[in-house]
Design a protein that fits this description.
Helix content of chain A: over 70%
Order of helices and strands of chain A: HHHHHHHHHH
Family (chain B): Belongs to the ABC transporter superfamily.
Number of helices of chain A: 10
Pfam family, one (chain B): oligo_HPY
Oligomer: heterodimer
CATH architecture of chain A: Orthogonal Bundle
Number of domains of chain A: 1
Protein name (chain B): Peptide/nickel transport system ATP-binding protein
Radius of gyration of chain B: 21 Å
Strand order of the largest sheet of chain B: 6-7-8-3-9-10-12-11
Keywords (chain B): ATP-binding, Nucleotide-binding, Transport
GO molecular function, one term (chain B): ATP hydrolysis activity
Strand content of chain A: under 5%
Structural class of chain A: mainly alpha
Number of helices of chain B: 10
Number of strands of chain A: 0
CATH topology of chain A: MetI-like fold
Chain lengths: 259, 327
């Protein structure tokens, strides 16, 4: 929501807000604490942290969410195919996933960004690819446990096609772990983006990004608590709320928990 | 059961085999089974756990692809059918499962569960809400489910009601032949009777043919016209229900029948206890498969192959010594 609003403001004001408040520096005011004018205070370059937080959602939340959405779809499909058909297909897909999984995800993301060059789309690709194996594994395990149940056989007995069985019988019944994994994944992705930004491979300054804000502020933690605490709290609360949303979503989608 | 008028043969199974590959060798789950079923008849299949009863039922419906053999339904070998014809055929052959908890999709309501087969088989269009509603209500009436349950999920219902949904789903397509894979073993006794009576009523009403798989001999006696006793993937004895209970011939049938509890406290049970382990169905040795546990076995029993022989009208047995054993 916030990221869409900020995008609209950007378009309407022709980037004037962004240029004058979000990235323009004001060294006289640097490290000023929270006040009525700047409710979250100013950072080490005198930029308004509140506005940077708002604009930062576009990178942190949005990239994380889209990246995870992409890897859920790709990983989920691969996992479902592997789990449903088993044998050779399962082996080929899962061994490939193992290869991806063997490389630490942050290292993989670094390698991808290094190969493609930093940039929004490339970070997105890096995040998406590094999270694919986790989803493939979660979905495969769930699909394998469901596909041998009698109601799948019942569907076969009435002549349902494989596609129908996967989409109407297996996927609705394996949603719970996927949703939980996805919300956790978004949280993880936000951290990964922050990490990449910190290493200089992610969002490039002066674009505001929560993780980058946090790591830049680290140096000033003794002099100005607010510039580290506020982005940190932002990330924490976001991740917490994502987890709560995931929890609620899972319960809402499960008819067994409805009253 | 009184003598029935000769009816048309609906299903014929010839030399049906289903082997599973295991790391230790071939598992002979169903080994060379042949029988036939007439329209409106019930064949009870009994045997201990793991003897291949369920696998046989599923192989006949091609839920497991049989290794070899023929399944002739209405004069045609369905094992030669391609996907399209097989799908069409599924309208006529259905299955009711053992566990009403596992056999219903937990995310589909009662009406969705019953509608699904109708849509898959193209009987109704998805947009034809009224027609579908009417059909669902009809089926719910048929299986004795209250109309108000139409939008409930399976977890909200008890076992008996769930099993009624399972039966409703199978009946939605107006099948001729239904494999009942232990449909009442997961239910408690009072509900068992209800469901069994429902199934018998439906059989009469709709002219269904059942293959009734169970390990419960009292149930099979109640519902079957003919009974086939299975042991390790083979039919060892097959006879009309009354005859089998009055005059069991195979030593395994003897042992099975001796295990039925009798509702009389003074009755002294002559239990025939089977000694020894169940022989492994993986690469079974030639000869009679029951020989190792049979109290009457002679060395020859483990050498010759046995097949079903008709010893009196309608009564088949696969044992060479049944005459000597009789007394």
């Amino acid at each position: 929501m916030i990221s869409i609003t900020t995008t609209i403001i950007d378009v309407v004001t022709d980037n004037r807000v962004y240029d004058t408040y979000v990235i323009s520096q004001n060294l006289v005011m640097r490290l000023k604490g929270p006040s009525a004018e700047h409710i979250f205070g100013l950072d080490e370059f005198g930029r308004d942290i509140f506005l940077r937080m708002l604009w930062g959602t576009r990178y942190s939340l949005f990239l994380g969410a889209i990246g995870i959405l992409a890897s859920t779809i790709v990983g989920g499909t691969l996992g479902a195919i592997a789990g449903f058909y088993g044998n050779a297909i399962d082996n080929i897909v899962m061994r490939f996933m193992d290869i991806l999984l063997a490389i630490p995800s942050i290292l993989l993301a670094i390698a991808i960004v290094a190969a493609l060059g930093p940039g929004l789309v490339n970070i997105l690709i890096a995040i998406a690819i590094s999270y694919i194996p986790t989803f493939a594994r979660v979905v495969r395990a769930k699909v394998m446990s469901i596909k041998d149940q009698e109601f799948i056989e019942a569907a076969r007995a009435v002549g349902a096609s494989d596609a129908r069985i996967i989409f109407k019988y297996i996927i609705p019944n394996s949603l719970a772990p996927i949703i939980v994994q996805a919300t956790l994944g978004v949280a993880g992705a936000i951290l990964s983006i922050a990490g990449l930004s910190f290493l200089g491979l992610g969002i490039q300054p002066p674009m505001p990004e929560w993780g980058a804000m946090l790591s830049n502020a680290r140096t000033y933690i003794r002099d100005a608590w607010h510039i580290t605490v506020i982005p940190g709290l932002g990330i924490m609360l976001t991740i917490l709320s994502l987890n709560l949303v995931g929890d609620g979503l899972r319960d809402a989608l499960d008819p067994r928990l409805k009253n | 059961m009184e003598e029935k008028v000769k009816r048309t043969e609906l299903l014929q199974v010839k030399n049906l085999k289903k082997y599973f590959k295991t790391p230790k060798g071939m598992l002979h789950a169903v080994d060379d089974v042949s029988f036939s079923l007439h329209e409106g008849e019930t064949l009870g299949v009994v045997g201990e756990s793991g003897c291949g009863k369920s696998t046989m039922g599923r192989a006949i419906l091609r839920l497991h692809e049989p290794t070899s053999g023929e399944v002739i339904f209405k004069g045609e070998n369905i094992l030669k059918f391609d996907k399209k014809r097989m799908k069409k055929l599924r309208e006529e052959m259905q299955i009711i499962f053992q566990d009403p908890y596992a056999s219903l999709n937990p995310r589909m309501t009662v009406s969705e569960t019953i509608i699904d087969p109708l849509i898959i088989q193209g009987k109704y269009k998805k947009s034809d809400k009224e027609g579908l509603q009417k059909k669902v209500r009809e089926i719910m009436d048929l299986v004795g489910l209250s109309q108000k349950l139409i939008n409930t999920y399976p977890h909200e219902l008890d076992g008996g009601r769930r099993q009624r949904i399972g039966i409703g789903r199978a009946l939605a397509l107006n099948p001729k032949f239904i494999v009942c894979d232990e449909p009442v073993s997961a239910l408690d006794v009072s509900i068992q009777a209800q469901v069994l009576n429902l199934m018998q009523d439906l059989q009469e009403e709709l002219g269904l043919t059942y293959m009734f798989i169970t390990h419960d001999l009292s149930v099979v006696r109640h519902i079957s016209d003919n009974i086939a006793v299975m042991y390790l993937g083979q039919i060892v004895e097959k006879a009309p229900a009354k005859l089998l209970f009055k005059n069991p011939l195979h030593p395994y049938t003897h042992a099975l029948l001796s295990a039925i509890p009798v509702p009389d406290p003074d009755y002294k049970m002559k239990r025939i206890l089977l000694q020894g382990e169940l022989t492994s169905p993986i690469n079974p040795a030639p000869g009679c498969r029951f020989a190792k546990r049979c109290i009457h076995a002679t060395p020859e029993c483990s050498q010759q192959e046995y097949s079903l022989k008709e010893v009196e009208p309608g009564h088949f047995v696969a044992c060479s010594r049944f005459n000597e054993i009789k007394n």
